[in-house]
Amino acid sequence: MSKENKLGRRDFIRAAAAVAAGGGAWMVSHPNEQAFGWQLDPRKCQQCGRCATSCVLSPSAVKCVHAFEMCGYCDLCGGYLQPGAKAQDSGAENELCPVAALKRTYVEAPFYQYTINADLCIGCGKCVKGCNAFGNGSLQLQVKQELCVHCNDCSIARDCPAQAYQRVPIAKAYMLKTLEKGSEPTK
Amino acid sequence: MQQEPTKGISGRLPARLWAVLTVAVVALVVVIATTEKRTEPGASYKLDLKPFTKVDDKDVAFRQTARFALNLDDPSALAVADSGTVYVAGKDAVLLLDAEGHETARHAVKGTPDAMAVAPDGRILLGMRNHVELLDATGKLLAAWKDLGERGYITSIAANADNVFVADAGNRVVMRYDYGGNVLNEMGQRDLKREFEGFVVPSPYFDAAFDQSGELWIVNPGRHGLENHRPTGELVSSWYKPGMDLYSFCGCCNPTHIAFRSDGSVVTAEKGINRVKVYAPDNTLIGVVATPDDLHAPSDENDSHSPVKDLAVDKKDRILILVGPMKAILVYEPKTPGDRKP
Amino acid sequence: MSSKKEKTIPAVAAFAVTAVLAGVALWTWFVHDAEPGMNVRLPGADGTPAGEKGKSKKVDLKGRFERFDGVAAERPGAWTRFRGADCDNVRKDGPPLADAWPKDGPPVLWKVDLGEGHAGPAVMAGRVYLIDYDEATKSDAIRCFSLADGKEIWRHSYSVTVKRNHGMSRTVPTVTDKCLVTIGPRCHVVCLDPVSGAFRWGIDLQRDYGTKEPLWYTGQCPLIDEGKVILAPCGPDVLMMAVDAEAGTPIWRTPNKRAWNMSHASIMPMTIAGKKMYVYCAVGGVAGVSAEAADAGTLLWEVPWNAKVVAPSPVLLDDGKILLCAGYGEGSVMVQVQVDNGAFSAKTLYKRGPKDGITSEQQTPIVFDRLLYGIMPKDAGALRSQFVCYNFNGDLVWSSGQSNRFGLGPYLLADGKFYVLNDEGALAMIKVSRDGFVPLATAQILHGQDSWGPMALAGDRLLLRDSTQMVCVSLAAGK
Predict the structure, then answer these.
(1) Which domain holds residue B17?
(2) What is the CATH number for A100?
(3) Closest-CA distance of chain C to residue B22, Å
(4) Is A114 on the interface with C (CB under 8 A)?
(5) B240 and B103: one domain?
(6) Mind listing the pLDDT tens digit for each residue in C364-391?
């Protein structure tokens, strides 16, 4: 074998690393049914606040998401307003969200649409708790898969007192409660 | 005389200690920079509803005087007939109780009624999700009325001698029927001329009841109050009390249920903060009937469903609260002065 | 320099440099983690339209004036205030009234459409006055009609938002030859010239006196007595007050020491033990205030009563006994006012439930010839909605029976006959009798709903209304 054709040990390691890195990148960018990630089950979630503090990311990869089909578009929204708010308006002193991530927009009397600014949301779940207690539970916490770094041992899952975290197929990574037919809240 | 130079702080501490301090500062920075997480979220990131569930004893105006245990699964609706008989609906059955809570009869039904009323002549009206079933006084099915469509969700029925008013939370209307099952009119259409913008029903809680004068009152839960409508639907009067305090109706949509006492006061049940209260005819709070603790539901913050499935007032003016998880009717009467704690 | 000092200086320098670097590092870390910008979050950022949740504006009571082509009638007869000139709903003199009606009832002379409500008219010098609510312009409208044909003569309006709550309007104006005074649903008092309609003065009882608006808006009808307008604002400081009728300036004020609130009842002038006084039943209790010049405005006596909703006005019986009525299970209270060496006092003689004695939910019973007449409320048991007669001892003399029930509508007495309007607009004529219920005739006059507004009888013309229409009926004898 000529010296030109001979693959040196260093070249071999470089090539192997390139293949490994390329494969890894492809796998990350092309998840399949067998790829799994972390998600929390809103039905088990207790809104303890640890999603905001236990994640390795800051701010957390857990965000509040809104299942609009469940929302009552209420004026007196338990997820938006402080429980003892003196006025039902957008004044900072009346808002429940500590980071002003939950916005509302007037639709028509007496309806408001609620949206979440994910850039501001820290995943504390304060609004989720208010919505669950007084509303329909349309505000829910979820691990945003595009933010999650997919730790093998999720630090939030380790701290979650409700064991709400579980591994789910990346292709079906979200576990929102919805108003599927037959699953409406009962009287 | 040569003066001894004053020793600065640098001269009082040995070099070794300075080195230790330097290392300590570096370590502190590293610790702070790498430990940006707190083990517990701060108070501003938590929502504590417990203070709102506490009720001062001076605000409690009623006391529990009886508890009727029910041999019935999924108790779901309650009514008191003109005869004084208490009717309770649940899974596959309607129970008839006497004034002491003893079961006197049981009618088999198919399914779990979401709402129930008893006509003055003893006929029974059941809300079976999206349609009404009419039973005779012996429990025999007389008719199943035309359904209210896929969205129909009957949460309340109020019946007098001529009319049956059916609250449909799914379609946000109250339908007025005759006893033949014919729709006489539909209530809830927006009437801007009379500044009525319709019923706001964010969740399946939507009640209707007659007051002591026979006037029809319908809860507008999204507006946190009660509205008096004519049988033809026109809004006559209304009162709303949105808010979290004891004097108001909390949450997105309350009250969940209402019933009237003979003096015109109205009994209300709320979810979110699970409680039962009574308001005077001038809409001021008379007092609390059942606290969240009484209902064994102090603050189930992960469940927006009400443990109170229905309310009624019996012929002795007692307040009957149907509590689903307890499988029981709690009976309340006004406190007497001796009942109040000092 | 010692070697010890030589070692210390570099160590201190190293510490100082490290401390500075640490400070810079931490500052950088904090800055990096902080939010780049701050937003001020204010009410209204959610796009809620202005006025949706705003406070009510100051009302300009000078308002707007419109003139129409109606002309005052040349007719005798007046009904100058709530319950008539003597505040008793009894017409003492006037032309005889028909004892029987034609088959179709007494002739309806004219009709006028009104905004939804229960305000009754006052009549003077051929003019009919009524405070209406105009939903189109969102205004209280003080309207003057001709008694002859119902044509509108003029109208004074001021903008105020009133949302439907068992209708909007409720009160009866009071009129003298110099002043017409009204109180609107939201506690606005206005005085006009009764002929020209020119604005004289106005008072906003809520803004100026802290009045708490009653449950179903203002029911208190104003009273003009000896050139003074007598009002019961029941604000934090003033229970009752007198205002110069022409100037609108306060004359006297009675403190509201018990913090009572305005009810739906009206002030009744009474004379007890030779002393003229104004008696008002507020939410909280009933009080008598001197109406005599020497001590005008002085609180003479008071009795607490905890009825939550009070609509009927106090009724004077005899020997200083005053009957108070209320609906919603309250029944009635008999108050005894007494005087001892010129000092007045009062006490509750007894309370009776709605099944145990005469009471009323909305209208005020009539006293005539030492008997009490009225319509019982719906919670009166067997007597529910019956026309009844009681003696002053509280004993039932007679009732109209199960087949003759009425409602919350008004009734008055004239020429030996009661005129009673039921909820559905049927007018009944009942002979005044100590012995029993003697119906003379019934006619369906109105065809709307809730015919609850007080009636007015000017001469032989009866004015009555339902929730949206006022009609004038001739009760003249021999037609």
Answers:
(1) 12-40
(2) 3.30.70
(3) 5
(4) no
(5) yes
(6) 999 999 999 999 998 899 999 999 999 9
